[in-house]
Design a protein that fits this description.
The protein is an alpha/beta fold and 260 residues long. It is built from six helices and eleven strands. The structure holds zinc ion.
Length: 260
């Protein structure tokens, strides 16, 4: 068992990892955003990857999601905890709150979302796109650490890099979206294809564009809230790790019934 962490801001310098070594990896899908950091947190083997590269250089549409998932799988990763900043589409999801989504709505347009582009057609099942066991562990950890959170939610993933218009933001609310980001799809889908359990810790940083009495989101707003709250995400990660077990999970076998 090895736990992968795909990190946003705040995980750039993983000084919390013992026996740390850095692996520079090539993949059949091209380069990674960053080197992979391997090591241990307590007794648990981890592999850490920075989604947007150090210093956030790579925009969401340009992230090589296939290379990332392939490389983590190749390093023996069985579970991924992905962190992401997100906008809130609900009054009750306040800036600084964590959300552990159980559904997504895919509004991306230009991304490679399957490993299988050749002769082999694959229709992967994603009715429940996040690992339920892993999501529950994250939510229970947040509860026991008394960190403000929402145990479920629907994340809308947009293409970006621009933020939403007010009309779009209102529409996503009507659709049942709770939070909005630019990175969950195709990351979650590719993890499912690769047979890796995948869950997300999303940190709400702003109210997107729908909220009439709040300023529309800016990058500065996101960065400020992230800086203030990144310790909560780290705490969840550390405390959740020892609770994760290598056990039967449908995430690992979904691909077997997806091949045409
Ligand atoms: Zn699973």
């Amino acid at each position: 068992m090895r736990i992968g962490l795909i990190g946003g801001s705040g995980f750039d310098d993983p000084d919390f990892v013992s026996g740390m070594r850095t692996v520079k990896k090539g993949t059949p899908y091209g380069p990674l955003s960053s080197d992979i950091v391997l090591g241990k947190v307590g007794d648990v083997e981890v592999a850490i990857l920075s989604r947007h590269g150090r210093g956030h250089r790579i925009r969401p549409s340009a992230v090589n999601y296939r290379a990332h998932i392939w490389a983590l799988k190749d390093e023996g990763v069985t579970h991924i905890i992905a962190t992401t900043a997100c906008g809130s589409l609900r009054e009750e999801i306040k800036p600084g709150h964590l959300v552990f989504p159980d559904q997504f709505i895919d509004m991306t347009r230009t991304r490679k979302s399957t490993f299988h582009e050749g002769d082999q057609v694959v229709h992967i099942a994603v009715a429940d796109p996040f690992c339920e066991k892993l999501r529950r562990i994250l939510a229970e950890t947040a509860s026991s650490e008394e960190i403000a959170h929402h145990p479920r939610g629907t994340v809308v993933t947009i293409e970006g890099p621009r933020f939403s218009t007010r009309a779009e933001s209102r529409m996503y609310r009507m659709w049942g979206g709770d939070i909005i980001n630019m990175s969950t799809v195709p990351e979650a889908v590719l993890a499912r294809e690769a047979g890796i359990c995948y869950a997300t810790a999303a940190m709400s940083t702003d109210y997107d564009a729908w909220h009439e009495s709040e300023e529309p989101v800016t990058w500065e707003m996101i960065a400020t809230t992230m800086r203030k709250n990144v310790e909560n995400v780290k705490k969840i990660f550390f405390k959740a790790l020892p609770r994760i077990r290598f056990e039967e999970c449908t995430c690992r076998t979904a691909i077997e019934t997806a091949l045409v």
